[in-house]
Amino acid sequence: MTDHVTTLSEILGPKGWLSGTDAEPYQRDWLNRYGVAPLGVARPANTAEAAAVVKACREAGVAVIPQGGNTGLCGGAVADQPNAVIVSLSRMTAIGEPNPESGSIAVDAGVVLAALHEALEPHGLMFPMHLGAEGSARIGGLIGTNAGGSQAFRYGMMQDLVLGLEVVTPDGMVWDGLRAVQKDNAGYQLRKLYCGAEGTLGIVTRAVLRLYPTPKQQTSALLVMSDFAAAVSFGVYLRGEAGEFLAGLEFFSDAGLALALKHLPDLAYQLESRGDVYLLVELASGSPRVPLDEILNSALEWGMEQGLVTDGALANSGAQRSQFWRLREEQPEGQRLEGEQLKHDISVPPGAIARFIKAGAEICGGILPGVRINPFGHLGDGNIHYNLSPPEGRADFDGKAGQFAEALTSLATEMGGSFAAEHGLGRAKIAMAEQNRGIVERELMARLKGAFDPQDTLNPGVLVHAPL
Amino acid sequence: MTDHVTTLSEILGPKGWLSGTDAEPYQRDWLNRYGVAPLGVARPANTAEAAAVVKACREAGVAVIPQGGNTGLCGGAVADQPNAVIVSLSRMTAIGEPNPESGSIAVDAGVVLAALHEALEPHGLMFPMHLGAEGSARIGGLIGTNAGGSQAFRYGMMQDLVLGLEVVTPDGMVWDGLRAVQKDNAGYQLRKLYCGAEGTLGIVTRAVLRLYPTPKQQTSALLVMSDFAAAVSFGVYLRGEAGEFLAGLEFFSDAGLALALKHLPDLAYQLESRGDVYLLVELASGSPRVPLDEILNSALEWGMEQGLVTDGALANSGAQRSQFWRLREEQPEGQRLEGEQLKHDISVPPGAIARFIKAGAEICGGILPGVRINPFGHLGDGNIHYNLSPPEGRADFDGKAGQFAEALTSLATEMGGSFAAEHGLGRAKIAMAEQNRGIVERELMARLKGAFDPQDTLNPGVLVHAPL
């Protein structure tokens, strides 16, 4: 056992330091593509311990890999070299008292998102962040990756929902930025900068988050759209007519629906007809006086008159609402069970979604004829999870993964979009990012990293290459 | 004429380089407290010229002071030394075509906010940023100061409304970050970092901004509240019952109302009774089916039953709505006409507004008995413009300006708030900021500045002291 491992285990005690087989559950990423065995896993009980760990690692020249719920899709929370320590905040799970008057709450970074949702429910308050991994994803990881999810178009991403932060810096100092106000211009917006920094500038240990009152009523509909252009047009109409109620606006394709129905036998599709594209619409209001069903029905009628909507139904119960949502939420699982896949996390300006999907299909079909394309995602912010399965009868992509990624990145970039919308870069997309960034952007990001973490202690090789 | 001035005038041509008396209108800040004569004012016609100016200034060791509409209240857009060039983007005023499908628009940084509002009107779109100075404030300055205004609690501050940026760096390079999507996690959130950086990290030359559909109906009410605690409670109730319609929630005091009525003879107060505190509520909706008046009336009745609201009226016309708003908006002008004043731009968690105002009154009365306090601002985000006039019969503050500022800063900080909510730091609050910042925050900010602008070319002495 090396000296610095002794130091770490002394700082943390037996509960706080895992090595050998105990560390294995932390070692690999969610998709099982990244991760080598680290020196161990540090599980600090509080901020002071987290800071001491970072300080000791820095002094020993050991890389520090912050890990939240380890649900990331880009391999940014596991080690790529043995001389590394994973810092998991899974023991720091305190949830403060919500402040209903101010609409805020202080939480430890290790809090699981679903646990926060549950804790808020009796208070009539909500934290408007919803995504597939909410049962495991932790607040610190959500901040580190600047998570988006299905309500981002209305309430924002994590960077919009964070009021204050506490962060352990790469030097092992603690920045106390735990203010609890939206309007704070007393210097650089550090609180925003740490969002999406993927643990390369510091480890978020605590946060003050913005809360909203829970809506008093909601209504959902599943719609069959004539095509993607129709979905975009209908989305624009809805934003104009019911923008302030819009709490969900998700799309998926018939290809994805078919995969989900094939692999998840308990899923049920309950409309009479199928189509190429589906839209899941959810409206919510704090006022019981708003005729939500009437507003949604009237929009639906308009959509049918315009030839945009070909079929559809409002959920007539909570159970049916859940079924509608499962059709959307089981898309990734359906595709995973189909076998090999390639995931791309694209965003384009919302009005360009249909154009992207059309052009993307041509490009991908050119690269590997018959490749199956399953685009689904968030219509309101243009976020397309553009996933591929091999052609029917094939098990792989003929070694063309890189070609797909490059072509789709170029297409999204040309349209003013991003090839890393809400999953981040991690290790999976760092080469692509460095290649895609302009020289000025590359330099600014490297300087930023260099200023905060000159020894490249925190999450080296993630988000940016070695600091300037 | 020095060599570098020749260089600058050659880069910019006669329209683009102002000196001597031509430069005077740019020299002093809005409150006429800061600004010495610079070498001249550079008015680049485009981004390339702006970059060339910065590069030339950097090489010559001349400070560059970016200036927008010069409406800032903290002296951050004028020179404090003669060896400086003011860069005004007032010639870069192109407004792109709005994209209604994507809800975005690209604009030059020199566009005046009111001009943007006007340009959007025929398209049924709005940019939800409203503040007193909108007739002169320019987009670049609003970004540099991370402006907030009266709708920030609903739509966010500038940092939440900026999708993409183009920025001239202190080296005279151009960062093209003009993407047009909300979800973009392909690296550090530079676009957020430049918001509120007060021109110390770069000059914003162009931006892609987020747009919203214009509401189809709105309704406003002026309410007399029994006290500040009642205003806070009523605000919490409104957020729960009508949160998604809430487009304005402004408060002011009877002290401020009296000053406005005294100095602006065309102002009219139309309710039957007065009180200590007033609330201006505005609801707006995209749906014509929402019974906005009914919702507001019902909230009002609830407030009266609870003893929170003592009087009130819904605006019965656009003209009356404007009169209501003027009562709030003329608060600064009324106080200015009263004579000497001290302005403080505080934010506290919204639920703590009443506590802050009570404690603030005790503290300020202790420092200078009889001092007149006029707090007004934005209830939804806890932003209090906490302004002071000398005691009746006195013309000044007996040299106690610093004491007030320090005491109020401590009070806001203790409450988890900020002493620089939406006006920024500029030159006026830099000493206070450095004193108030913890050692870690001070170091992080200095490193950030040092990484981007090691020669301290851009706006030296604003926001942070000299870089590390």
From TrEMBL, chains A, B:
Gene Ontology molecular function terms on file: catalytic activity; FAD binding
GO biological process: respiratory electron transport chain
Matches recorded under Pfam families: FAD-oxidase_C, FAD_binding_4
FAD-binding PCMH-type domain sequence ranges: 34-214
Keyword field: FAD, Flavoprotein
PROSITE patterns: FAD_PCMH (PS51387)
Domain of life: Bacteria
InterPro entries referenced in this protein's UniProt entry, alphabetically: FAD-bd_oxidored_4_C (IPR004113), FAD-bd_PCMH (IPR016166), FAD-bd_PCMH-like_sf (IPR036318), FAD-bd_PCMH_sub1 (IPR016167), FAD-bd_PCMH_sub2 (IPR016169), FAD-linked_Oxase-like_C (IPR016164), FAD-oxidored/transferase_4 (IPR051264), Oxid_FAD_bind_N (IPR006094)
Family the entry assigns: Belongs to the FAD-binding oxidoreductase/transferase type 4 family.
Name of the protein described by the UniProt record: FAD-linked oxidase
